[in-house]
Amino acid sequence: MHRSRVYAVLIDTPEAEVARATAFWSAALGVTALPFPPEPQFTTLHEALPGLVTAVQAVDDAPRIHLDFETDNVEAETARLIALGAERIARWQECRVLRVPGGHLVCVLPVESDPEAFRAQANVWP
Asked: Which segments of the protein form a coiled coil according to its record (predicted)?
């Protein structure tokens, strides 16, 4: 048995466009953009989507939006999503990057949120 939930919505933006994209999304959503010092490629859009982390992420790839799933068992959650039709694309630090049916990307990562909030909000999988 393991648990998982959608943790974050990331707006992947080519590095050269990050400042403009961050300004746009911050104004469009009416929120404050805050740097995330531990990982400088992320700029948090504070409270844009209540209950979810929302951020602009500088990437060296095409623009897109992707979801992050947090889980108490990265291998089990990765296997669950693969069984549903996802395919492995890459690994970055502890994160597993998957391409899901339809072509979108999702990341599977260890629990990042408050453990109590995670337990209360996560789905439980056999």
From this structure: none
What's at 72, amino acid-wise?
A: D
Contacts of 100 (CB under 8 A, 6+ apart): 81, 84, 85, 86, 106
Q: Which of 20, 16, 43, 17 is nearest to 32 (CA)?
A: 43
Q: Tell me the DSSP string of 71-83.
A: ES-HHHHHHHHHH
CATH number, residue 114: 3.10.180.10
pLDDT at 37: 86
**Which residue in this structure is represented by tokens 């056999």?**
126
In whole angstroms, what is the distance from residue 111 CA to residue 4 CA?
8
